[in-house]
Request: fold
Amino acid sequence: MARTLIMLLAAAAVFAADDPWAKVRELKGGAELRVYKKGSAQPILAKMDELTDDNLMLVVKSAQVAIARDLIERIDYRPAAGRVQTETKSKTTDPDTRPSPPGYGSRTPGTSVSSGVNVVSKPDFETIYKRPAAPPKK
Reply:
């Protein structure tokens, strides 16, 4: 029983490694995609909606579009990354141990805090699927 389970898991792992569509399945809905179709010069920029074995469902602007798997040459995706980065710096100064001049209070440690926000550009697209080469005809 255990041996059969191990063989099934190994077979599934090999199949997943050979299936280029497997990486597309791992994408979450809303992922930003660039899809290249057969015979089209310009890619389609869209957000992923749903994936089946035969079709990739996309949201282009506000419309849902289905593209058949056999029409897709390549799919690029943009990794999710925060566009806004915040930074906070804190600095503590040591007290001055020298005696204070007459008329001045004691010198105590001080703390200063500064913070900032940086807007970062989007990461580049990465290729996640490329149509496998057709086997040569005999």
Remarks:
- The chain has two helices and eight strands.
- The first helix runs from residue 2 to 18.
